[in-house]
Amino acid sequence: MFQALARTGRRPALLGGTAAFVVVALLLWWLLPLGDKSPSGEIKFSTGTPTGVYQTYGDLLRQAAAEDMPDLKVRLRNSDGSQDNVRRVATGEADFSIAAADAVQTYIERGEKGAEHLRGCARLYDDYVHLVVPKHSKVHSVADLRGKKVAVGPDGSGVRLIADRVLKAAGLDPRTDIVPLPDGIKTMPDKLESDQIQAFFWSGGLPTSAVTTLSDRFPVRLVPIDGEVVENLQAPGGAARYYRAAVIPANAYPKAQQGSPVPTVAVANLLITRDDMDEDLTEALTRTVIDSRDSIGEKVHAAQRVDLRTAIYTDPLDLHEGAKRYYRSVKP
What are phi and psi of 225, to 5 degrees? Predict the structure, then answer.
């Protein structure tokens, strides 16, 4: 009888111990990423010129990725801009990058090496075309640039691509009707201030710090790009279909705009990679891009435009499978 009572007394204790073990196991399963190992290794991320928005955005994204994926090292590489970035990703020199949609489409249309392997991860923010001149310049339209020394961006930049097209849309030959100089945003402001150039084109997010800094120390203004120029710019189709009429808000560069909005042209930026990039890594990086919008946006205002609802529209590129996985996981 006593043995029976002893066995009966042990049963609740055994059941209680089993229940406690199950609870602990469930807690461990919930808290520990047993099946979701964080991506590791190293990736190369091509950015842009040192004082441009691509570089700043890339650096902040690297910091966000370090928090989300501590075992992953993101190595940044400066570049001349969009055209250079597309080529690097397509040929394997870089794993991820940012590039304007018109530069991506142009690379595809030209049948350049690796174009068929390019994939999109997210639509980010728009670049706005800036045409900057000294405040008292006689240049009031793109056509007025005839005969002037104009910085149009390095050969591998998105700035050069769109500047040449804007000049042609205004009836100017970018090789003969102006004196084109291949400066980037790092040297454009100083050259304008010292009268080595009479104007410069820039295509970037709003506001671009180099333009803000220049306007704080030297009187400049933005030349409007509108009307017939925009219509002519869009007319050829192809890559030109990615240009849209836009307005630089009056508060983007208060000292340069004096309270007035400036009509211009904008083009979307894309986060790009290749079709052979690891799906788990691509999914994780896409997640970081979306989740870090507000923190990056505190320093790069253009990043505040990153929106989950529009991020999937990476035309002309198909979404990478890893990016697709991310968007499916957050679909309401």
Answer: -125, 105
